[in-house]
Amino acid sequence: MGANLMFKKLLLIFIVVPLLELYIMIKIGQLLGAEVTITLVLVTGILGAIFVRAQGFSLIRQVKQDLNEGKLPHKRLLEGVCILASGLFLLTPGLLTDLAGFMLLIPPLRIRLINTLLKKFSTYIRKEGSTTVTWTPQNRFPNS
Q1: Is residue 133 in a domain?
Q2: What is the pTM of this model?
């Protein structure tokens, strides 16, 4: 990736997105009032934390089960990354980031994103080379 493209992406993330968030919150504040806007941001953050925690614990159980069955849980680990990203989005004040966070908590959308990323990275791996990892059922989690 070129340095110019990377700079543009960072500019978008660190300048444009916060400005959009601020603009949206100001408009909603003008429409509904400051108290409602602040409450909305706080409630989405709290609800998001509850959902992220529940899905995170569920995912940990599924990963342990996959490992005990001798399956490599690569997709489940990517789901974990998406859930973590969702939590970060939901903890960031703003309605756009909350929307992105909640979208990552919807399993069909999350799976679709993961499959898209896997296709993209598998093309990269074919071009650049790959590494093989072997997992056997004897490599289990302790106390499982």
Answers
A1: no
A2: 0.73
